[in-house]
Amino acid sequence: MSDRGRTEANYIRYEPTATILDVATGGYKHVLRNIYPAYYGISPDGRWFIYATYSTPEEARPDWPYRTYDIHLLNLDTLREEKILSGMRFYIGVFAPFSWSPDGRFVGHA
Hints:
Elements: E1 18-21, E2 28-32, E3 39-42, E4 48-54, E5 66-75, E6 81-91, E7 98-100, E8 107-109
Antiparallel strand pairs: 1-2, 3-4, 4-5, 5-6, 7-8
């Protein structure tokens, strides 16, 4: 299929961003760009966004069936983001590695 004749308005393309969407107005705000998250989650209180990015290239698999990730945390109130952990190994088959405490103060890794 050709892209000829398509405009930005009718052509959706994948962008590795984290976006906050206001469901009441339909407005949105990109808060992180080019993050390529492997895993992610939002705290139960809605204040934190956690995500994991690959810290080793896709081709390098010396520790198969594990992958090495960096863990990042974004405060959704201040939009301050920081890498909180480097070199975390997850089993490749893990579906949701993060688990939050009910009050959103703590996050665990399973």
